[in-house]
């Protein structure tokens, strides 16, 4: 058609398209009530009056000013609305129970019931919205259910950050109370922590017949209010304003000095005298300068059992300056010298006792060629990996004992200081570390060295702090099909372990073949240079590079760390079994050894017994640490193994190791001749 008829309806013209020469000969589309897709006033979508709106589809209805959608159908538009007829008209938001598909959630709320006022406007009074920037896990779950119920967009919940509940870490849950004046029981700021640093509010719930307690400046104070003795349970609650955590404290209410009058003395008016406590600062120590030392007053006591259980009952001084508090605490001296530290113990009635301990800080005489501060005094090592210090040992691959049980590695010192912090009352804020620390303190029987050992074991085992997963790729690379779950991974560096390694574990390499399936650790920095096939790794590589390992790696890591925290060469061993590796440790206060297996984060510690899942006692063959091969203890000295018959390999290796230890002043050739004649 002529361009003059653009946007006009030429169907009503008296001329055909070719004869149209001016706009006057054309009809405007606006003269049609509705025109369809064919561009003319005829067709399926053409209507002549608003009463025909009902014949239009919902899509076509929205294109015409004379029609509107009412209750999901097309109808003629009315010039006025009638509120209450259940039809949404003109500017009505709703009508009666008809809400036009709206809900509280579509209006920006998180839950509730949407209603309609009598004037046909939305009633939002029953709709609710979460205002807090963080919400509890429970509230988040409720909101999620409501969103699902209304088929709403769950992204509304992403606007709220999930709140981490505050934590409470108690090294002990029982405290002594023997005074009728308020006495500090606990410094709550030292045992509580909030990940978001929200201000914490503490509340107490307890029966009020025996004690009266209060909280001031984040400290818990209690006093006796009756002569009734016994244990009072107090529920301590800490809240960050969103979530709450509870812990139960036990207050052992004892008699005051005046209440401890003997029956015979009552009549005479003579009272039993309260005596001062007996302070014991422990044995003098010789340590390397810069090393954290443990100050232990756990041997202190009071005849009337009158020392409060708070850390403030024990104060440590140097040059008349208070340097620490607590029954067990820590300190360090960075300079060579002799230091006298004074311990002051105060009972609940204010009587004081003092004792001193001498700390001699010296230059190190072992591990001289490293900067490590923590190492055993009875080690033969002076270097870390790679070195030729120590004696050759052969489990999977041959290497020197000081490379495998790497007691001279300064890279492992932070783990040792972490164990010290756990056991001197310091707060560990990491959740995994806090859990491991609680278990260690709970089973330490008040002994710091025992506590540190248990923390290391928990960190290698179930709490997965220092190592994670099992290094199956090492076995697959070596072609050990019994320990490679997927045959397609044989002679490959797969699967990739799920470990928190600082290295890119996708770059680990396997250079093994069926003819040569032994690997070697060469570089800490270029992981591609190492061949991971069935190689016994230096402890620092396992703990700080790969963060995972096989049974031998887990075992050597534990032996290394326990040696560094001070376990002697006859207290901790790596055990080589016929087809496994694990540990044997003698904890302080224990008469016998305990077998421990943390392979793959196994919870393999049963104090006083043997772990499940393997014939640990029956399969022991050899024992190792940084001194090389060591005589294995008799099974009669091992918890849970007393009634097991020793295998011949164990008996033979013990004899050989004892001969190795006792060959002093005897020529090597003569000694080797003895070994050959004995056939061991």
Rounded to the nearest angstrom, the radius of gyration is: 40 Å
Strand order of the largest sheet: 32-31-30-29-33-34
* Sheet with most strands: 6 strands, antiparallel
Structural class, from helix and strand content? alpha+beta
Strand content: 15-25%
- Beta strand count: 34
How many H/I helical runs?
Answer: 12
Mean pLDDT: 82
Query: What is the share of helical residues?
Result: 10-25%
Termini separation comes to: 113 Å
- Shape category: flat
Low-pLDDT residue spans: 14-18, 28-44, 131-135, 150-160, 262-271, 663-671
Number of domains: 4
Explain what the structure shows:
The chain is of the alpha+beta class. It folds into four domains: 3-76, no CATH class; 167-268, Immunoglobulin-like (Sandwich), CATH 2.60.40.1080; 285-362, Immunoglobulins (Immunoglobulin-like, Sandwich), CATH 2.60.40; 392-646, no CATH class. Helix content is 17%, strand content 22%. Helix 6 (431-442) packs across helix 7 (448-460) and helix 9 (539-546) packs across helix 10. The model is unreliable at 14-18, 28-44, 131-135, 150-160, 262-271 and 663-671 (pLDDT under 50).
List keywords for this structure.
single chain, 680 residues, alpha+beta, Immunoglobulin-like, 6-stranded antiparallel sheet, 5-stranded mixed sheet, 12 helices, 22% strand, flat
């Amino acid at each position: 058609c002529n361009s003059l008829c653009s946007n006009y309806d030429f169907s009503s013209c008296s001329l055909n398209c070719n004869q149209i020469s001016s706009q006057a000969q054309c009809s405007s589309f606006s003269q049609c009530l509705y025109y369809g897709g064919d561009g003319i006033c005829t067709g399926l979508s053409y209507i002549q009056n608003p009463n025909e709106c009902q014949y239009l589809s919902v899509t076509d209805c929205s294109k015409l000013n004379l029609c509107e959608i009412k209750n999901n159908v097309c109808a003629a538009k009315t010039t006025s609305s009638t509120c209450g007829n259940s039809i949404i008209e003109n500017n009505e938001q709703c009508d009666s129970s008809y809400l036009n598909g709206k809900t509280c959630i579509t209006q920006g709320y998180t839950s509730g019931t949407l209603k309609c006022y009598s004037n046909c406007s939305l009633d939002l009074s029953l709709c609710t919205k979460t205002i807090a920037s963080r919400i509890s896990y429970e509230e988040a779950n409720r909101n999620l259910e409501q969103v699902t119920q209304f088929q709403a967009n769950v992204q509304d919940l992403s606007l709220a950050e999930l709140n981490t509940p505050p934590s409470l870490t108690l090294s002990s849950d029982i405290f002594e109370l023997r005074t009728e004046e308020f006495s500090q029981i606990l410094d709550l700021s030292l045992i509580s922590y909030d990940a978001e640093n929200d201000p914490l509010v503490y509340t107490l719930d307890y029966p009020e017949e025996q004690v009266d307690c209060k909280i001031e400046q984040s400290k818990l104070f209690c006093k006796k209010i009756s002569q009734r003795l016994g244990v009072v349970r107090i529920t301590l609650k800490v809240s960050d304003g969103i979530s709450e955590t509870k812990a139960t404290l036990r207050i052992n209410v004892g008699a005051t000095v005046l209440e401890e009058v003997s029956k015979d003395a009552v009549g005479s008016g003579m009272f039993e005298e309260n005596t001062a406590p007996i302070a014991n600062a422990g044995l003098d120590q010789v340590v390397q300068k810069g090393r954290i030392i443990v100050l232990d007053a756990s041997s202190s006591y009071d005849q009337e059992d009158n020392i409060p259980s708070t850390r403030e009952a024990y104060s440590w001084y140097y040059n008349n300056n208070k340097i620490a508090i607590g029954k067990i605490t820590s300190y360090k001296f960075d300079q060579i010298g002799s230091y006298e530290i004074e311990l002051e113990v105060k009972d609940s009635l204010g009587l004081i006792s003092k004792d001193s301990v001498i700390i001699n800080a010296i230059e190190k005489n072992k591990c001289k060629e490293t900067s490590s501060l923590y190492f055993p005094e009875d080690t033969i090592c002076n270097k870390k990996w790679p070195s030729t210090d120590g004696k050759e040992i052969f489990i999977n691959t041959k290497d020197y004992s000081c490379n495998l049980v790497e007691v001279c590695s300064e890279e492992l010192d932070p783990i040792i200081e972490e164990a010290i912090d756990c056991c001197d009352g310091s707060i560990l804020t990491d959740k995994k570390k806090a859990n491991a620390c609680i278990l260690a303190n709970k089973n330490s029987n008040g002994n710091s060295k025992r506590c540190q050992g248990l923390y290391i074991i928990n960190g290698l085992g179930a709490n997965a702090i220092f190592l994670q997963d099992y290094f199956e790729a090492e076995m697959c690379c070596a072609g050990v099909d019994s320990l490679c779950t997927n045959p397609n991974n044989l002679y490959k560096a797969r699967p990739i372990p799920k470990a928190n390694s600082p290295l890119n574990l996708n770059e680990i390499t396997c250079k093994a073949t069926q003819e040569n399936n032994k690997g070697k650790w060469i570089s800490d920095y270029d992981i591609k240079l190492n061949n991971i096939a069935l190689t016994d790794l230096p402890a620092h590589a396992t703990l700080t590079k790969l963060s995972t390992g096989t049974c031998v790696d887990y075992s050597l890591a534990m032996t290394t760390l326990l040696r560094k925290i001070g376990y002697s060469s006859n207290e901790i061993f790596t055990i080589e079994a016929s087809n496994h590796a694990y540990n044997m440790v003698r904890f302080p206060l224990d008469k016998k050894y305990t077998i421990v297996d943390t392979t793959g984060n196994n919870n393999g510690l049963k104090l006083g017994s043997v772990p499940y899942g393997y014939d640990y006692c029956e399969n022991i063959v050899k024992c190792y640490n940084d001194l090389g091969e060591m005589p294995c203890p008799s099974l009669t000295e091992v918890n849970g193994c007393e009634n097991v018959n020793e295998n011949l390999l164990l008996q033979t290796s013990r004899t050989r190791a004892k001969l190795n230890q006792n060959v002093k002043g005897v020529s090597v050739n003569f000694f080797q001749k003895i070994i050959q004649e004995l056939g061991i």
